[in-house]
Specification:
Largest sheet: none
Strand content: under 5%
Radius of gyration: 22 Å
Helix content: over 70%
CATH architecture: Up-down Bundle
Number of domains: 1
Order of helices and strands: HHHHHHHHHHHHHHH
Shape: globular
Distance between the termini: 61 Å
Structural class: mainly alpha
């Protein structure tokens, strides 16, 4: 009875604190993720107010939080959207991977953490935060800009890549050999391919079968189906998160819209619990030794993300100002980086503190980069071009970043 009383008190205090922190973040217009991580550090071992009775419950809630994050992400996309993005932006996705994953892998190897930790840290530095970026684009009023589809295309490619990356990482963390890893990869690729095919061909039938005019029934069916598929996926070593993402892709139309409305509050609650749990598992005393590495990695991969967005927007024919806006918007890291680090902390204990510091830096720097990358690039380019350069006779004038014709979306 005493344990149950303490469980209720601790959970009530944590959830109330999360609500207050979320309101503070909303008041100042930034993502609440860094505040949730800091709350986890405060409530964890080595923090100010360690939790004991509710730690196991919070761990279960964190697992549900990851599943709901990926489900709601999958509901944002249709199978046809994914196929179209793969056809038109696959080269930008390759550049994104090379520029942003390799620095993380290189740092892990330089620190002597081994190849498995290198694969994990590569994922941490590779994937941008869809949630933070979507909020920033909306807050800045850029939903109608020409570069916004390019940004969303990069995010879609990254999210779809997770359906392949996470099973590989899970297999490596489990210590399976080359044969076992190859089988896991084949299962993952086969599962993704089958789900995309079924969603394209029979998506309407699936959505019709799940659909219900009763919100309670729709909530129970979608949530139950998601947890079931996530559990089966975990048994097959394909990752529970990927299973949830694929369920979201398979649903479309009114069902997807209704499920988003019903599950968004649950997603927000359990996602907040997930970030707190990750903070709980990190001793704040372990962060200062890796803070310099995290800061250096944040600077390097912040710049490589800007280059990624610039390149992708250039391929899409976007004007120069839009290219810089696209690059700055992609800087933020968040939920996926923490998910990956949470999986891998067992193989390298220092990975958790490094990922926490890294995400804290970039989740706060991301909105700033989205707002100011283009104006800063404009000023620097204007100064560089201040001295007139004679153009060849009859030759075209050089495109200028401060040309009014270039500042449109």
């Amino acid at each position: 009875m005493h344990d149950m009383t303490m469980l209720l008190i601790e959970l009530g205090a944590v959830i109330l604190a999360l609500g207050i922190l979320g309101r503070i973040a909303g008041r100042f217009g930034f993502s609440p993720i860094p505040l949730y991580l800091l709350a986890g550090l405060a409530f964890g071992h080595g923090g100010l107010l360690p939790l004991d009775a509710s730690e196991e419950f919070v761990a279960t809630g964190a697992e549900i939080g990851v599943i709901l994050l990926l489900l709601l992400l999958g509901l944002e996309y249709t199978a046809s959207d994914l196929v179209t993005t793969l056809k038109t932006q696959y080269l930008s996705g390759v550049v994104d991977f090379v520029l942003n994953a390799l620095p993380g892998a290189a740092v892990a190897l330089m620190l002597g953490w081994g190849p498995v930790a290198a694969v994990a840290l590569a994922g941490v530095t590779w994937i941008s935060s869809s949630g933070v970026i979507a909020k920033v684009v909306g807050d800045l009023g850029r939903l109608g800009n020409r570069e916004t589809p390019v940004i969303l295309g990069i995010l879609v490619l990254e999210d779809l890549s997770m359906a392949v990356y996470l099973p590989i990482l899970t297999a490596l963390l489990a210590g399976v050999g080359l044969a076992g890893g190859s089988i896991t990869l084949l299962i993952s690729l086969g599962t993704v391919s089958i789900v995309l095919f079924v969603a394209l061909r029979y998506g309407r039938l699936i959505s019709r079968a799940v659909s219900s005019d009763n919100p309670e029934m729709l909530l129970l069916v979608v949530l139950g189906l998601t947890l079931l598929v996530a559990g089966i996926a975990a048994k097959l070593q394909v990752s529970a998160a990927v299973g949830a993402f694929l369920v979201g892709i398979a649903l479309s139309g009114e069902v997807a819209h209704g499920a988003r409305n019903l599950l968004s509050p649950l997603r927000d609650l359990f996602a907040a619990v997930f970030f707190v749990f990750f903070g709980l598992s990190t001793d704040p005393r372990d962060i200062p030794p890796v803070l310099g590495v995290a800061l250096g990695l944040a600077v390097v991969t912040g710049l490589t993300k800007i280059l990624t967005g610039w390149y992708a927007a250039r391929r899409a024919g976007i004007k120069t100002a839009g290219r810089w806006r696209a690059g700055g918007t992609l800087v933020a890291r968040g939920e996926f980086s923490i998910v990956i680090a949470g999986l891998a902390v067992g193989v390298e204990p220092r990975l958790g503190p490094l990922a926490t510091a890294y995400v804290l830096i970039l989740v706060m720097l991301g909105p700033v980069a989205a707002r100011y990358t283009e104006p800063v690039a404009r000023k620097l380019t204007s100064r560089r071009k201040a001295a007139p350069v004679p153009a060849p006779a009859g030759g075209p004038a050089e495109e200028r970043l401060d040309d009014p014709a270039n500042t449109g979306s």
